[in-house]
Amino acid sequence: MIVASELPDTIPVFPLPGALLLPRARLPLHLFEPRYLAMCDDMLKTSTRLVGMVQPYDAPDKDGKLHTIGCAGKLTAFSETEDGRYMVTLSGISRFRIVEEVEGFTPYRRCKVDWSGFDRDLGPAEKDDTFNRDEFMQTLGRFFDDQGLRTDWESLGDAEDELLINSLSMLCPFEPEDRQALLEAPSLTTRRETLVTLIEFALRGGNSEEMMQ
């Protein structure tokens, strides 16, 4: 467990389009680029083992610009393949805001970050007191049928609110900008509302570009 006072001011960042990490969730990653192998090696030498997952803007005119809000994950599982690749798991710790990118000699990007405003990320699992699970599961079933997806419905039905909503937010096939909206949702309730909006929009045959306009 990491407490607020242990959060560093500067962290390495991993810009990965479409990848979403949320607090108290887990994200498996396959690292093979030399710069990210070096990043992992350096992370393992720190006490917090944190990296910031952040999405780059998907537009030619943005030229590698990053979204302001990302989520830091702690490296909690690590293995190396025979050919030198790393299989790692990040456990979501807290969201952050990028203050500025830090210039340096590392092959990977680093940013100065601000953790304020995300205090609940370091606390216990959130509850969604207005969650109508039966209605939600019916809508989710139609979405999975529409998308040709399969899942273990018994496990989903038994999952706690936060685990259910966050897992679906991370795993459902949404566009990067939609995933960013799920990340930035200020509470579990608003994330669930955003998730339902995205699911219902997909069921109506819309696309994310229309939705963002």
From TrEMBL:
Highest taxon above the source species: Bacteria
UniProt cross-references to SMART domains, sorted A to Z: LON (SM00464)
PROSITE patterns attached to this UniProt entry: LON_N
InterPro entries reported for this sequence: Lon_prtase_N, Lon_prtase_N_sf, PUA-like_sf
Coiled-coil region: none
Residue span, Lon N-terminal domain: 11-203
Protein name per Swiss-Prot or TrEMBL: Lon N-terminal domain-containing protein
